[in-house]
Design brief:
The protein is of the alpha/beta class. It is 44% helix and 14% strand. Helix 1 links the parallel strand 1 and strand 2. It catalyses: a di-trans,poly-cis-dolichyl phosphate + GDP-alpha-D-mannose = a di-trans,poly-cis-dolichyl beta-D-mannosyl phosphate + GDP.
Length: 207
């Protein structure tokens, strides 16, 4: 790609063999390119970001799911977009241009669309996809946002964008195709929806 990079894999004791595969990749590509930084148990997305940042040596950090529902082919577009507008954040969007979702049932699509719509109406964040996690950040911007964000779960990604706007950071968007994971399960139940609504109201009251 012509870009100097490292891949940091944070594995929270997942039972799907992620750690073993990462260890094989480390042997092939070297520990300077593949950095496996496992944790003993599931400690949450926000703490995984902080854990990964401690080991990141670059000026920019791309965050993505390791199950390839986020395709690496979009990363060069993120980098181009960042350079083009000197953005602090470049966010992947499923809801603009030729972006889309593959592998979700109607219920999941409606929940995601509904969550984005309600958030747009209440918070007017100026970004089209608030619940996705495929993003590029300036490292110092990500650090600052992590200090400010208090949400957990489904609301966390949304708060990152809302706080970024509040702090005056610039955000670019790249249309992406999201493909639901082939292995394992994504758990989005009633509890997550209730906590999302609570988090949304908290953000509405505090931003």
């Amino acid at each position: 790609s012509g870009n100097n990079f490292e891949i940091i894999i944070i594995d929270d004791g997942s039972p799907d063999g992620t750690q073993e595969i990462a260890e094989q990749l480390e042997k092939i590509y070297g520990s300077d390119k593949i950095l496996l930084r496992p944790r003993a148990r599931k400690l949450g997305l926000g703490t995984a970001y902080i854990h990964g940042m401690k080991h990141a040596t670059g000026n920019f950090i791309v965050i993505m799911d390791a199950d390839l529902s986020h395709h690496p082919k979009f990363i060069p577009e993120f980098i181009r977009k960042q350079k083009e507008g000197n953005f602090d954040i470049v966010s992947g969007t499923r809801y603009k241009g030729n972006g889309g979702v593959h592998g979700w049932d109607l219920k999941r699509k409606l929940i995601s669309r509904g969550a984005n719509f309600i958030t747009q109406v209440l918070l007017r964040p100026g970004a089209s996809d608030l619940t996705g996690s495929f993003r590029l950040y300036r490292k110092e911007v990500l650090q600052k946002l992590m200090e400010k964000c208090v949400s957990k779960g489904y609301v966390f990604q949304m708060e990152m964008i809302v706080r970024a706007r509040q702090l005056g950071y610039t955000i670019g968007e790249v249309p992406i195709s999201f493909v639901d994971r082939v292995y394992g399960e994504s758990k989005l139940g009633g509890n997550e929806i209730v906590s999302f609504l609570k988090g949304l109201l908290t953000l509405f009251a505090t931003t």
